[in-house]
Write a structure and sequence with these properties.
It comes from Escallonia herrerae. Keywords: Disulfide bond, Signal. GO terms for molecular function: enzyme inhibitor activity. This is Pectinesterase inhibitor domain-containing protein. Belongs to the PMEI family. By secondary structure, the chain is mostly helical. The radius of gyration is 23 Å and the shape is elongated. It has 8 helices and no strands. The longest helix is centred in the middle third of the chain and has 29 residues. It has 2 domains: 30 residues; 161 residues, Butyryl-CoA Dehydrogenase, subunit A, domain 3, CATH 1.20.140.40.
Length: 194
């Protein structure tokens, strides 16, 4: 009799250790903070680009193991990387001398806008980490406006093609991801605080 219960207990013990490690991996598949957060933002804001959010955040390895506030920081870091790289791109364009005076002036304007964006993104991240969500939101909104202003400036001359369309779009969208996450966190939505 003791042998049977020992065997049963051993089987239960073995089952527990073989099956239990599988349970978290199943749950991990169903609880994906990147997908959940991007979906919530897309359902809350009409112009939010779900696929851009998903693919941008997924490129950063740590995003798969962080929490939702961590995703906001990652989005701001991605935006900061974009703005910094765009400054280098603009400087290279200006040193190349391939632009007419009109385009050159707007590139100089964009250079100033992106320099300001770098500073605002740094301040926004600091404000967010201090729990000053409203300040972080204002700064991120200003960064988004900078991207739009850079893009629109070139359209003032008919036929002028903006050489920074992709960079402007990326900066706008990355800032929008961070802005949405901060808004969700400030509202205290339980499903986002997974």
């Amino acid at each position: 009799m003791w042998k049977c219960s020992f065997v049963s207990a051993s089987c239960c013990f073995l089952f527990f250790f073989l099956v239990t490690p599988m349970i978290p991996s199943i749950e991990a598949l169903s609880v994906d903070p990147i997908n959940t957060t991007c979906k919530q933002c897309a359902s809350k804001y009409i112009n939010f680009d779900y696929y851009f959010c998903l693919t941008s955040l997924q490129t950063v390895p740590v995003s798969h193991v962080t929490d939702v506030p961590g995703l906001a920081i990652i989005a701001m870091e991605l935006a900061l990387g974009n703005a910094t790289a765009t400054i280098s791109t603009i400087e290279n364009m200006l040193s190349g001398g391939a632009f007419d005076p009109f385009a050159r002036q707007y590139l100089l304007d964009c250079l100033e806008l992106y320099s300001d964006a770098v500073s605002m993104l740094e301040q926004s991240a600091a404000a967010f980490l201090e729990g000053q969500f409203h300040t972080a939101n204002l700064l991120l909104s200003a960064v988004m406006e900078a991207a739009v202003t850079c893009e629109v400036g070139f359209s003032e001359k008919e036929g002028e093609i903006t050489p920074l369309t992709e960079e402007n779009y990326d900066l706008f969208e990355l800032s929008d991801i961070a802005l949405c996450i901060i808004n969700l966190l400030s509202l205290g939505l339980p499903s986002v605080l997974c």
